[in-house]
Amino acid sequence: MNEKKLPTVAYFSMEFGLHSDFKMYAGGLGILAGDYIKGAKDINAPIVPIGLKWKQGYTDQRIDAEGKPYDTYHNYVYDFLEDTGVKVSVKVRNVDVICKVWKTDKFGNNPLYLLDTDIPENSDAWITGQLYGWFGEERIAQEIVLGIGGVKAMRALQIPIDVYHFNEGHAALAATELIREKMCAGLTFEKAWLATREEVVFTTHTPIKEGNETHPLDRLEYMTAFNGLTRDQMERIGGNPFNMTIAGLRLSRISNGVADLHADTSNKMWKEVSGRSEIIGITNAIHTPTWVDERMTQAFENGGDLWATHTEIKGELIQFIADRSGIQLNPDNLLIGFSRRAAPYKRSDLIFSQPEIIEPYLESGKIQIVFSGKAHPLDDTGKKIVSNLVAMMKKYPKAVVFLENYDMTIGAQLTRGSDIWLNNPRRPLEASGTSGMKASMNGVLNCSILDGWWPEACIDGENGWAIGDGFETTDFAVLDRHDSDALYDTLLNRVVPTYYENRAKWVEMMHKSIETTRVEFATKRMLEDYYNKMYIKA
Ligand SMILES: *Cc1c(COP(=O)(O)O)cnc(C)c1O
């Protein structure tokens, strides 16, 4: 980046994944945000993160005796949080809600500000209770606190901000406050909106239309989310129902998707939206000190023995699996890792789709698979997916393991110690997929559909494997059959023989995997892209 003074950026996110025990995250969006603010600290970038202080965080999801997932919640206390002494007030259902502002830089991150409504002054202390616990009024209340409360917190803390970055649409209501401030200073709504657009940038994350949150205008009005704007003005920003992504696109000077393919998909998806910003691609990245095993980094940099290092780390994973599940896997046999949110498009069970093909490998243990992943507490389809994986564990006790309560600890273990990292979403529905980056930099070879980040990194057969050819159709029956065939072809005709019969080639691929990803998909590159393409005006 150039040496000029960099703009100061307020980075709004509903979740931050900084550490397994600091339950401010649910999944990939939060992991990205956590890595982002650690990376910002590493390169001294003036990014000021703002989020909510969740009392219970996201679900702790366990498996019951029948093999079904169930959700548990606990009140967590974090004694390391610093009290900034600042409180701000927002209106929810026309009642003042006080938000206390905490701060922490405990995890090697830029100081993170967290708004908390769980204080005696509030009758509605539960707004910051559960992350993604609700969809309707409660979600809007959370978004008022994050967006409007977040802007007010910056003012009260007297941190001058040049750019407001909304990481996903959850923070879009922040713009109502930015517009309101300017109207109070005498600007018309039009001028205030235009001026606000000049200081806002927006990141969209979900390539599924239904995944983009909407709220009826009536409900927003009832919740006091208009924040002084009129119904007509709100409708012009986000439509009716008010779409948080469309609002983000219309409130920003520039937007981005989280991989090049995702940017294309998003531009197509939102083609009809008038007055929106352009969506460019800035591919996600990971904070390498958090996710890459130091022993592997040392071995790679000093010409050490990658295989011996991997074997040691794989042994630790196998012990971790035994401790958590009681299942003893075979360290000599191929171990596939697969952990992601249980959502249908991710197709966790694609590998089981033609049992006559895969069964012999699972029965012999020649292929072993370790799964993890949570379903959203209100998603019955997702819960069925988890139950099905648990059933597979019972069916193939030598070869299939499901680890309950997926979190950063499990994520780190699996992306370090597996041999293969499998990813088989329905293209183009995987926005980015940072777990594959963690794997690749640990010398764990990706075997993936050409979706999300993988088309940018994959040199098929050299640094990992592509499944299929990027085929797309909206006929899911056809797509699933096509990709199932492609998965078996790649896995059984290329991955398995290489693993068992050509170790030298495997190790060469591990080397190439690390070499081709460790710089390109590390936070420094990503932050530089955000500064050069989004934050610094051309
Ligand atoms: C890395 C990580 C993610 C994001 O990975 P995806 O590839 O997007 O699924 C989600 N959850 C946890 C716990 C992680 O460690």
Describe the structure concisely.
Phosphorylase is an important allosteric enzyme in carbohydrate metabolism. Enzymes from different sources differ in their regulatory mechanisms and in their natural substrates. However, all known phosphorylases share catalytic and structural properties. The protein is an alpha/beta fold.
Task: Give a quick account of the main beta sheet: strands, pairing sense, barrel closure.
Answer: 9 strands, mixed
CATH architecture identity of the largest domain: 3-Layer(aba) Sandwich
Mean pLDDT rating? 96
- Indicate the proportion of strand residues: 15-25%
Could you explain how this protein is built, in words?
The protein has 19 helices and 19 strands. With 538 residues, the chain is of the alpha/beta class. The chain folds into two domains: 9-285 and 524-535, Glycogen Phosphorylase B (Rossmann fold), CATH 3.40.50; 288-521, Rossmann fold. The strands form four sheets. Strands 5-6-7-2-1-8-9-12-13 form a nine-stranded mixed sheet, with helices on both faces. It binds pyridoxal-5'-phosphate (PLP). The site of pyridoxal-5'-phosphate has 13 residues, from helix 1, helix 14 and helix 15.
Sequence-ordered SSE layout with sheet pairings:
Layout: E1 9-12, H1 28-42, E2 47-52, E3 60-63, E4 69-72, E5 82-92, E6 95-104, E7 112-116, H2 137-156, E8 163-167, H3 174-184, H4 189-197, E9 200-203, E10 214-215, H5 217-222, H6 231-238, E11 242-243, H7 244-251, E12 254-257, H8 260-269, E13 279-281, H9 288-291, H10 294-301, H11 306-325, E14 334-339, H12 355-364, E15 367-372, H13 380-395, E16 400-403, H14 408-417, E17 420-423, H15 434-441, E18 445-449, H16 454-457, E19 464-467, H17 476-501, H18 503-517, H19 523-535
Parallel strand pairs: 1-2, 1-8, 2-7, 8-9, 9-12, 12-13, 14-15, 14-17, 15-16, 17-18, 18-19
Antiparallel strand pairs: 3-4, 5-6, 6-7, 10-11
Helix pairs in contact: 1-19, 2-3, 3-4, 11-14, 14-15
This protein binds pyridoxal-5'-phosphate.
